[in-house]
């Protein structure tokens, strides 16, 4: 059950997010950007909780929203295999000693179910090819028709600021899920930075990096209370407890402010 402390941290994290003008613009712009970010962030959370049906459902919704999520049709099965292969490896979700023998029948069923987004995507692309003569939607060709590329160096800098909140997960002891998230976003950022796709108002592409990672990090910060004991030979500070969640929430506020600037 959530404690009052963790609820406060969670609400504070959401307050930081909704205080961002960038979120307001994308939330009310009428485009699919926020939906993609929310579904992807929820998929990260579901993977962290080993709720694979939920993760698959959210990835499918993200795939229907944005082409960037198409990469997850391949990443998701591999992620589930990696997570299940490390189930008996302390600490939880570690990066070492992956053992496929840890996958039982139920685990492989989850892997098979995670192929659904890829099957749906393949069906859509084949239908496009059969009806229009092209695999990709018409909007892709329209948006990439002119050559108005934006400054790649400035974009990469802003996008990397958007990734700052992933530090929260590493501080909390997570390894595998944050690593998978980075593996996904690094090539996506490179693709954004070198493309000439249009409609990048208010650094829309950078928001698509920042928001999903922030949502996942907010979940981590509001999880069960983590404490560290600080000992000292001097009274009255012989022993004190530091609530790490408060620090993680403040870090989220800092990352949100940095991205907004």
Ordered list of secondary-structure elements with their pairings:
Blueprint: H1 4-18, H2 21-27, H3 33-48, H4 52-65, H5 72-85, H6 105-113, H7 116-132, H8 138-143, H9 152-162, H10 166-171, H11 176-194, H12 204-221, E1 227-231, E2 239-243, H13 244-260
Antiparallel strand pairs: 1-2
Explain what you see.
The protein is mainly alpha-helical and 261 residues long. Helix content is 65%, strand content 4%. The protein has 13 helices and 2 strands; from the N terminus they run ααααααααααααββα. It has helices spanning 4-18, 21-27, 33-48, 52-65, 72-85, 105-113, 116-132, 138-143, 152-162, 166-171, 176-194, 204-221, 244-260; strands at 227-231, 239-243. Strands 1-2 form a two-stranded antiparallel sheet. A hairpin with a 7-residue loop joins strand 1 and strand 2. It starts with a helix and ends with a helix.
Question: Can you give me a brief rundown of this structure?
Answer:
This protein has 261 residues and is mainly alpha-helical. It has 13 helices and 2 strands, in the order ααααααααααααββα.
